[in-house]
Amino acid sequence: MPTAPRFLPAGESALVVEFGAAIDPALNDAVHAFDRALAQAVIPGVIEAVPTYRSLMIHFDPRQLATDTLIEQLRRLTVAPETFAGTLAQAKHWLIPACYEPPHDEDLAEVAAALDLAPERVVALHAGATYRIYMFGFAPGYVFLGGLPAELAISRRPKPRPPVPQGALLIAGGQALIANRPMPTGWYNLGATPALLFDPQRTPPVSVDLGDRISFVPVDGATFASLRQAVAEGQPVIRQKA
Amino acid sequence: MAHLRVLSAGPGATIQDGGRFGYRRYGLTPAGPMDWVAFRTANLALGNAADAAAIEVGPGGVELIVEAEAPVNLAFCGGGFTWLRGGQLVGAAARLSLAPGEILSAQPGVAGIFTYLAVAGGLRTPVELGSRATYTRAGIGGLNGGLLRAGDLLPLDVAGGSGEGDAMIVAPWLRPDLDAPLRVVLGPQDDYFDPTARDLFFSAPFRVAAGDRMAYRLDGPSIAQSRGYNIVSDGVALGAIQIAGDKKPLILMADHPPTGGYPKLGHVARADIGRLAQLRPGRACHFMEVAAETAREALLRLENEVATTTNFCRPLRRQVALDGVAAPDRTTWSAAGNRHPR
To answer: How far is B142 from chain A (nearest CA, A)?
Structure first.
């Protein structure tokens, strides 16, 4: 269990509860445990909380809460990491179809060259790993994953590349990411999933949860196209591991 | 059904309400108005809820026509824009009752970027994820998630409207001192900057280089980080002053991403966010450090002031012709008095 968190103001309307500065499952567990404890405590004036890899940002209404008052209440919060560990034990493991063939493999050759690996090896490593969902964020439905094999550690691009397509599977900085919206990015695009994990018509709008596990199941281009069609018709194309 | 029809809209016109909350953990920005002070003032002048859906007009201006069976009450203010009713100058901040078929248009004035047009009862565009606010990058909210365009039909609440009568809005907070320092609360990554860099940030003049609803980029001296500029992704709040590899401040505005991986020196106080939003590229600005509690008091004070908007609505007397027919709106006041100072 990490040490007591630091409370850092982010203006007069938000507070960061920081557990550490690294990508680490234990830190992320602490973040999620605190997030749950906060949700259960129902502190008047708290608007919402945003869990990240290593911190929780709490947005609040400054008319109802001052930063110092909120910190006092948070210090009294009973956080039970065991409870969250129990929840994690029941976390789902999702199998997500992924196509690493042209035209979806936009940056595969570039990554393979940079890492001095065969493209097939890059795909085998990316598709062979089991990932953990650390956070959503940056853009709607972006799923940030930990668990990328160390051989695929590549630093961010010095300059962003043009927007990736919807469903792009990105890597950079030792992290993996599913991009559910086209956005310019400093990451590298290895392939794409036909699944759309963000749907504003759904509650909650993201169909996977924090702490869930993810594996990618390679599919060919024709299967990708038919699964995209299935998505358009409202059929689920991700499934839980048996 | 009563509507406003968009006859033309320049870049930057969107529908905004108080914002979309509860979805930042899924990567969704709250969106909402760039200048909450002007936005709320327009709503409150009509007796609306302060966060009712209204039109945020950007630097491209807008032109609308009333398509309804009965008069529609509207209010506009913010950004020192010039508003015209049927081509006749009205001013920068007023509450009006417009008859069916009347045309209202707005053009930018000498300073300012955003003006707001509220309608009695609020716009009745669809609610998406709990809000009507437009977030164009994700195509959510507003009308089909996009910028307003010619031909758009904006549904109104026919039952809405206080019918208080035409008035000019003379609220002093609509004419803020654009040269006053922007107040900043330090953190959460102020420890990524040594005292020299922090002192430089709070003493040097900056200039707005470019901006949009997501962020304003500033030009000025380089603010060097002492521990690099990559952090493991962390939450981001409105007004965050992010300093990346180019060492120039980037201030995150209404459409900011909810998380980010660059160190944040501090946050611009909410009380000053609207004033910052109205600074055009090229305009100078500077910063002053305040405690979180000071920023909070300033915010509550300003919110309380804005809540008194109806006290600053001065009834407009129309000239009545001898035959009893209302003459065109020729009023005795000037638009200049309601503009931002240069």
So the answer is: 14
- Residues B5, A241: Cα–Cα separation, whole Å: 51
Using CB atoms, which residue from B24, B26, B240 is nearest to A206? B26
Cβ neighbours, 10 Å, residue B99: 11
Give B119's strand partners: B74
Per-residue burial over A167-198, b = 16 or more CB atoms within 10 Å of its CB, e = otherwise: bbbbbbbebbbbbbbebebebbbbbbbbbbbb
The tokens for B166 are 């035409």
In chain B, which residue's Cα lies nearest the Cα of A136?
A: B26
Q: What is the ipTM of this complex?
A: 0.91
B96 touching chain A per CB within 8 A: no
Q: Is the dihedral of CA B149, B152, B156, B158 positive or negative?
A: positive
Q: Cβ(A80)–Cβ(A201) under 8 Å? A: no
DSSP line for B80-130: TPEEEETTEEEESSEEEEE-TT-EEEEE--SS-S-EEEEETT-B-PPPBTT
A23 touches chain B (CB under 8 A): yes
Query: How would you write the pLDDT of chain B (342 residues) with one tens digit per residue?
Result: 899 999 999 999 999 999 999 999 999 999 999 999 999 999 999 999 999 999 999 999 999 999 999 999 999 999 999 999 999 999 999 999 999 999 999 999 998 999 999 999 999 999 999 999 999 988 999 999 999 999 999 999 876 555 578 999 999 999 999 899 999 999 999 999 999 999 999 999 999 999 999 999 999 999 998 888 778 889 999 999 999 888 999 999 999 999 988 899 999 999 999 999 999 999 999 999 999 999 999 999 999 999 999 999 999 875 443 444 444 443 333 333 333 333
Q: Are B144 and B308 in contact (CB under 8 A)?
A: no
Nearest CA in chain A to B271: A12
For chain A, the residue count is 242
Asked if B299 and A59 come within 8 Å (Cβ–Cβ), the reply is no
Closest CA to A139 of B317, B191, B26, B275: B26
d(CA B7, CA A69): 50
A and B: number of Cβ contacts within 8 A: 151
Residue with tokens 């990490």: A2
Does the beta-carbon distance from B27 to A56 stay under 8 Å? no
Contact B300 A14 (CB under 8 A): no
Q: CA torsion angle for A202, A206, A211, A213 (degrees, to 10)? A: 110
Whole-prediction pTM value?
Answer: 0.90
DSSP category for residue A10: -
Half-sphere exposure at residue B6, Cβ-oriented, CA atoms within 13 angstroms: 23
Distance separating alpha carbons of residues A57 and A50, to the nearest angstrom: 5
Q: Report residue A61 as tokens.
A: 């209404």
Question: What one-letter code names the amino acid at A52?
Answer: T
Residue with tokens 């521990």: B227
